[in-house]
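Subject: design request, 310 residues
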């Protein structure tokens, strides 16, 4: 079934990503559960000028395509070799080939065939052309996905803030993909707000973002990798970005979450399937453990090459 959208409210509860991933990795034999970032106080920066006069930047966790790093196309399996470990910046006036094969998206219910579902630069340009925002900032920025919160907070966030400031950004839209991406984007949103740049996170893992504590979250109840709208549906992508821009203007204070009214109508069962250890036979659990170990080895070698610590 082709994913589509309607305006009916989805009454199903969001996927509990924190609980689901804890039980999943415990079953794979990885010991103590991961401690997700959480803060009581949340910074909040109102827009300093009307949105129609603001310069808006885009922050993504997608990676530039690397043709020598194996399969990174639609439906590709997790590819640790395609990860990146330093903040990068690209010209916002040109198109770019960014992929999400390196993150733990929902590979059973979505294929990442439409980059506009996770990298809404075309929609942001259309918003600028329509006068909804003042301008797209001159660069977009890539944020690494680090399980190490210390690395994200002490290395990646200051670099991202410096680049956004250099570009004269008034606001930033952050679009994460995997569970850890949602944490990294949340930490970055907090840092940007503290630096005077208003933010909104467009995400699918509501519990992770709200657990960290951010100023604004536009929650889309879709499989991971689709926070910017539905595949092949430009209208839904423009609507989703528009909702994020509305939230930049209207949020009365920190921890404001708005839920998109759009509904995912692809294959049913995606919420029950993601990282659900109860649905996996022992041989599949063993296979995934071996695959995960291989990915860790690849990532470790890449981090060493990049001179980074996870």
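Subject: RE: design request

Done. Sequence follows.
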């Amino acid at each position: 079934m082709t994913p589509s959208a309607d305006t009916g409210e989805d009454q199903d509860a969001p996927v509990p990503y924190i609980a689901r991933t804890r039980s999943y990795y415990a079953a794979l034999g990885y010991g103590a559960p991961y401690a997700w970032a959480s803060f009581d106080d949340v910074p909040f920066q109102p827009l300093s000028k009307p949105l129609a006069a603001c310069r808006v930047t885009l922050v993504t966790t997608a990676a530039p395509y690397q043709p020598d790093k194996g399969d990174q196309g639609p439906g590709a399996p997790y590819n640790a070799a395609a990860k990146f470990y330093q903040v990068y910046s690209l010209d916002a006036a040109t198109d770019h080939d960014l992929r999400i094969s390196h993150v733990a998206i929902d590979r059973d219910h979505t294929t990442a065939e439409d980059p506009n579902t996770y990298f809404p630069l075309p929609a942001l340009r259309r918003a600028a052309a329509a006068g909804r925002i003042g301008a797209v900032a001159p660069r977009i920025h890539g944020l690494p996905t680090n399980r190490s919160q210390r690395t994200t907070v002490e290395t990646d966030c200051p670099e991202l803030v410096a680049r956004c400031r250099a570009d004269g950004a008034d606001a930033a839209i952050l679009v994460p993909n995997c569970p850890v991406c949602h944490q990294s984007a949340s930490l970055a949103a907090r840092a940007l707000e503290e630096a005077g740049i208003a933010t909104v996170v467009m995400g699918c893992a509501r519990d992770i973002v709200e657990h960290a504590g951010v100023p604004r979250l536009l929650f889309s109840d879709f499989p991971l990798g689709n926070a910017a709208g539905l595949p092949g549906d430009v209208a839904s992508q423009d609507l989703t970005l528009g909702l994020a821009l509305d939230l930049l203007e209207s949020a009365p204070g920190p921890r404001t979450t708005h839920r998109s009214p759009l509904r995912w109508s692809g294959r049913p069962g995606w919420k029950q399937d993601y990282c659900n250890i109860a649905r996996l036979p022992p041989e599949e659990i063993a296979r995934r453990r071996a695959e995960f170990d291989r990915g860790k080895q690849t990532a470790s070698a890449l981090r060493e090459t990049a001179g980074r610590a996870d």
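Strands lie at 55-60, 63-64, 88-91, 98-99, 135-136, 139-142, 171-175, 198-203, 216-219, 256-259.
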